[in-house]
Amino acid sequence: MTAKELAAACGWKLLAGSDGEENPVDGCYVGDLLSWVMSRAQSGNVWLTVMGNVNAIAVAALTDVACIVLAEDAALDKDAAARAETQGIPVYTCAENLYDTAVRVYETLR
């Protein structure tokens, strides 16, 4: 499944990074502590967080996650959106909390 297909199935809205929407998704990682995510998220994961800053985009690039989903309508700042576009890292938003979003990802990927 691609990031775009998962986003459509889950009802997420794309905020930035449309060039990466064909990235394959094979799992999920939930976390907000960037150093922790950097050492534990896997390539191909959907990263669920509320961190919408340029540092989150850098961590996404380093870990090669498929996309970022900002839960609870967390904001993506202007600099982060520009960096996501440049690096082709899809960033989506959703209204649900992290738990409900993770459950939805799990059920959709099963």
UniProtKB/TrEMBL annotation:
Coiled-coil intervals, chain numbering: none
Positions of the DRTGG domain: 5-106
Gene3D superfamilies documented for this protein: HprK N-terminal domain-like (3.40.1390.20)
Name of the protein described by the UniProt record: DRTGG domain-containing protein
Naturally occurring in which organism (per UniProt): Candidatus Acutalibacter pullistercoris
Upper lineage: Bacteria, Bacillati, Bacillota, Clostridia, Eubacteriales
